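Handout, page 2. Input:
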Amino acid sequence: MSSDLIEFYLGAGPDHRGRRIADIWEWPDEELERVHDYIQWLFPLREKSGFNLNAPVLDEVAVSEFRRRPDLKQNLRRSLQRMLEFYGLDPSGDEPTRAEDAAGRLSVKYNERLREWVTYGNHNHLRITRILKSLSELGLNREANDLFRTLEEIYRNEERKEFPGISEDTFRFWQGAISQR
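Output:
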């Protein structure tokens, strides 16, 4: 299965449904929200997915390939960039930030996307845990830590609210995901 994952990440092979990585990167936000079996391919883990039984599982060969090959790391960064855009975060700086307009106000896209995923018990919280774990496992620790700092800022804003959209348990899972390595 690790060879299928490497082929997928190089753009030379499809996932279990015949989709190519470049196609997924181009999906509109609505598609990324609606479809639930691509995230395991974009951000593989060592554990078998309970949701997608056809998802790849990282082994030592795949981890080694991702950690040593710049082309695989670059494509992993591209997957991260797409997901940051999906969450309304700005991936253009040294670390992701909440997307702002030219006047420094939070962008419409950020506010729209925030309403979609910063809701209590949202399935995107699990996706984010997966993203953090996968980045850390595959050698993109800086990117995982940068994302975590942005998520922490969002969480701290949420915890001040009467009905926060991110639970303390979710935040602890995110902390654990980056501290695993």
